[in-house]
Write a structure and sequence with these properties.
By secondary structure, the chain is α/β, with parallel strands linked by helices.
Length: about 200
C-alpha cells in the first residue's frame, strides 16, 4: 500500500493487519516506491491513498487490482482510473468495513465505487433516453446465474460462498447486481423473475 500522509498510512495498515484474511506485504510513502516494490513481488491487491492522477496513470503499476482512496470524483477521471487497473474508488471518510469490502471486491474482479464517484458517472447518462422493455437491463453473468440458482435452493450467503468458493462479500455484490438487473427488490422476487426468464430450471 501507499499513502503520502503518515497518519493515513498508519490507519490503512491497521485496517489490513486487523483482518485475518489479509497480509500486508509492504507500506510506502509514495506511489513511486510502491511501483518499484511491486515489480519484484506478487501482490493480490494494492491499496493507494492519493489525489494525484499522474501517480496512478503514468506510473507503470503491475496488473494487480488497485483500491484507491481519494477526493477525485469527476466522471472523466474515474473513467480513466477504471481503465488503469483501479477497481475500487472510495472517499477517505470510508469506514474500515468499506475498505475491507473494496479489497475483497477488487481481488474477486469486481468494481466498487463510492456514492460520489458512482453518481458522477451516472450523471453522464442523464440525458440519454432509456428504453422501457420487459428485458434485462444487462445480461446476467454466468456467476450471477450460479448465485441466483443457489438462492432458489434457499441457501444463505455463507453457504453460497462455500459452494462457489468465493467470499461472502463477493456473494453480496453478486446478489445486489442480480436484484438490479432483474428489477427485483427482494431475493424471493429475484428468484421468481429468474424462473420466468428461464434462468432457473424448474
Amino acid at each position: 500500500m501507499a499513502a503520502t500522509s503518515a497518519v493515513r498510512r498508519v490507519g490503512l495498515e491497521s485496517i489490513v493487519r486487523s483482518h485475518l484474511d489479509f497480509q500486508l506485504a509492504g507500506s510506502f510513502g509514495s506511489v513511486a516506491n510502491l511501483v518499484s516494490f511491486s515489480h519484484g513481488t506478487e501482490l493480490d491487491v494494492i491499496v493507494i491513498d492519493s489525489d494525484s492522477l499522474l501517480d496512478l496513470l503514468h506510473e507503470p503499476i503491475s496488473d494487480t487490482a488497485i483500491v484507491l482512496l481519494t477526493a477525485v470524483s469527476d466522471a472523466r477521471s474515474i473513467s480513466r482510473l477504471l481503465r488503469n487497473r483501479v477497481r475500487a474508488v472510495l472517499s477517505r471518510e470510508s469506514d474500515p468495513d468499506d475498505v475491507i469490502s473494496a479489497i475483497y471486491a477488487a481481488h474477486d474482479g469486481l468494481v466498487l465505487l463510492s456514492a460520489p464517484a458512482a453518481e458522477s458517472l451516472a450523471a453522464v447518462y442523464d440525458d440519454q433516453a432509456l428504453e422501457v422493455e420487459d428485458e434485462l437491463s444487462e445480461e446476467i453473468t454466468s456467476r450471477e446465474t450460479d448465485v441466483l440458482r443457489l438462492l432458489a435452493e434457499g441457501l444463505v450467503n455463507k453457504d453460497i460462498a462455500t459452494r462457489l468458493r468465493i467470499s461472502e462479500h463477493t456473494v453480496k455484490f453478486h446478489i445486489s447486481s442480480i436484484l438490479d438487473k432483474l428489477g427485483a427488490s427482494t431475493r424471493t422476487e429475484a428468484v421468481a423473475r429468474g424462473i420466468r426468464r428461464g434462468l432457473i430450471p424448474i
